[in-house]
Amino acid sequence: MVFGSIAGAPSGQLLVKLALSAVLVTFFLFLRGRETEGTMSRYALLGLLLALRDLSYSLFPSLSLFRASDLLLFAALLYLRAFPFASAAGPARRRAFALLIALPLAAALLLSLSAAFGLLGEGARAALWGASLLPVAAALALEPLSAREAPDAPGRELCRRTYLILGASSLAYLGAEALLGAASPFFQGIAAPLFYASILSVAFAFVDSSMDQLVGAVEHYEESIDSLYDLLLAAGAATKPDFSLQDVLDNMARVLVERTGAEGAIVLLADEFEEAVAVRALHGSYPPPFKLPESLPRERERVAAFVRRSRWKLGEGIFGEAARAGKDIFVPRGGEGLPDNGDEAWLRSGALVVSPLAVNGRVIGLVSLAKAAPGSFSERDFERCKLLASFASIAVADSFTFLEAAERGDIEREAAIAWDVQAALRPRRFPELPGLELAVFSQPARGVCSDYYDAIQTGPARALVAVGDVAGKGVAASLVMAMIRAVLHLVAPSGKDAPTILEWVNRALAGKLELDHFATMGIVAVDASSGGIELANAGHQPLIWYRASAEAIATVESKSVPLGVERGSSFPAKRFSPGPGDVLVMYTDGVVEAMSAQGKQYGRRNLGDAVQRSHALGAEGIASEIRDDLASFVGRSRQHDDQTVLVMKVLRSTGEEPTAWN
Amino acid sequence: MGDGAHAKEIKVDENSPLFDRTGMLHKEFPSDFRQIRYFTLLIVQSAPPDIKEINLLEQQISEVIKNAVKHGNGCDPEKRIRVWYSFSPEHAHLVVEDEGPGFKDIEKWNEFNRRRQKCLEGEDFAALAEYVSFRGERADDNDGGNALFAALEYWNGGFVFNQKRNCVAMLKRFPKKRRGLAASGGE
Fold this sequence. Notes:
- The complex is a heterodimer of chains A (662) and B (187).
- By secondary structure, chain A is α+β, with helices and mostly antiparallel strands.
- Chain A has helices at residues 2-8, 12-32, 39-59, 63-89, 91-117, 122-141, 143-149, 156-180, 185-235, 245-260, 300-308, 317-325, 379-425, 474-491, 498-509, 589-592, 603-614, 619-634, and strands spanning 264-270, 276-284, 311-313, 329-331, 349-359, 362-372, 436-443, 451-459, 462-470, 519-527, 532-538, 543-547, 552-556, 573-576, 583-587, 643-650.
- In chain A, β10 and β11 (532-538) form a beta hairpin.
- In chain A, α8 (156-180) packs antiparallel against α9 (185-235).
- Chain A is rod-shaped and about 150 Å long.
- Chain B has one domain (11-173): Heat Shock Protein 90 (2-Layer Sandwich), CATH 3.30.565.
- Chain B is built from five helices and seven strands.
- Chain B has a six-stranded mixed sheet, covered by helices on one side.
- The longest helix of chain B is centred in the middle third of the chain and has 19 residues, at 54-72.
- Classes of the chains: A alpha+beta (662), B alpha+beta (187).
- The A-B interface holds A 270, 272-273, 275, 277, 314, 323-327, 356, 358-359, 361-365, 397, 400, 411, 447-448, 450, 471-473, 477, 516, 518, 539, 561-562, 564-566, 589, 593, 595, 599, 601, 640-641 and B 21-27, 32, 34-35, 37-38, 41-42, 45-46, 49, 175-187.
- β6 of chain A pairs antiparallel with β7 (181-182) of chain B.
């Protein structure tokens, strides 16, 4: 029956109002998904309330009930608009607003009861209605004041944009109702629908506000992208040939100041060895957020110098704490809790932001922005700082990686240069001497490259064979090696004996050089025409001599100091004549001191044994046997010194061309 | 005023783990004072390039070899110096043995150092003048006497003599470089 009465003869006014209510509900439900605070859903409920109210009124056209529904409607509007401000303003204000909402609700209940039971006269009911609207009107009138008191309250922007239109339409609606009565066709046909339509302004304002926020966000992100570009450009100093970490940090501090509106910025880095952070760069005027010593003159340059030298242990002070926790610190204004460092305006701590530079959960540093009082930072400044800090973290970490790679590169490059020099100084081929074979193996240790060997033809059947070991390593050692080789090649053809050759080399080396220039060296002057061997030794390892006639190993030693120790050093000679099948072996420290996995040295005994085992082979074969034996002995242990073995094998005569050795 | 209790001491401990020579490189040298720089270079050349303050390490090794050559073996060319050594980016470990009678003045030196430290802690600079350098029986005018003070500071892993006091073992631990601090994430 109820449905029939509505569907059977709905008035045009009711249809208009229902249609408008439906539009309201549809709009607000549509917008519901575009916000998170639930405001649109509540306005959709308001639209539903309007529709229910009008349907009820068409069924029960009671003026008191209509007025009660008015009170309910405006209490709901008050709740939607003013309650968020009250909540943001504190619990007392919240309670007061709750009371303001409760009063019209209570009056609505009273009006409904009086209509049902005929408790009050018409005049009293109208008075109650009017009086109950007063707190609602007062709260809505004070809305701008509330908005100022709670500027960060949710929905503030929406209320601001719709205040005038809703205020005016509410006044028109209530005025028409008060003057003409709720039953008036003008009220029901014009004033009420207009009021309903005005509620749509909330939806439009929401869309408008969202668009503004979107445009603001786009601008913000565009600015952020620009600032990131600047930051990465500043950090891009890493790609320049004259890269320095200091440049990167200085540029970073500058970009932070320029892109956040801060007056000053500092960049701090974590110490490499201690649990501490230290200021590494400062740009602009940075009021220190820590207590300055009283004795420090309050002059800009002195204070800046002090800040640049400052460091904090982990957990100590504002920066030590930020580094320990790896958390941002935001003091937007006022500088509350920050120290008083003096009366100078540029020293008064105002606003402060501290953001960690963190990579993979480790804090590698901090950035901090500051403004002197009464300056302030907005949430956007804070967000911008955090964004820049996150990219700065990557830039700083990349700089570290670049520096480490460059350092490793320097080490590798020096090792490669030393390796190249050493290789270039080696003889391309050995001289050919009648009845004597020469062979060598030389294995440089990584980064050492200090062994030297040579064989210089000094006559048709004469040669000078040398094996040396320069003290030190790398390029420095290879420079000394180059000097030794130059002098040796200069004096070897002189025909002088081996001791004299060594004395000359030593004299050239023992000058006043700003370079360590020590080397051991053994030289053997071979005269294949006489079969004589002359050994001179500058602190070098004894020569191993396998004597075929005795089938035994002997050593030939000629003690003296290394080259470069004293300019006047002399090097006594040992002269002897090996026989057919004899083997002479010169070698460096790295061979006899080569270490096995068990920590034992290869030693002269193992070397001698290897020579004895392989004596029947040619020089190449013997060298190869020694190399294999040494490799087997050391296994996979890392070797710390070059290993060089030079083998001279006296050949047995074939009878066709007898040599001096046979 | 301080009591010098914080002064580091030269230890005498035959059983110190620092005397464990397992896996260490080894060289022997004659007691030739002229060649100390050369011996030092031979030892240090096996140090990895990662060790940054290599000059300081060279200086300390040179000092300890010099002591062995001069005060241990009395520069007698017939007497040898034996050195065991191992290096890594994190440590330098050295054992130096001479053929001399041993460093008899260790207790005197420790007492001297304790008093010196007491003067330093108490800022008694007038008294400190008496503790500028330690002169043992075998010292000459060229001995500043300060090398051991520096050695005790440098060899932070220990500086220990054997019972005969002719062999000294020492360990330097290099600080490990790291990037960044582990954030606790606390408040």
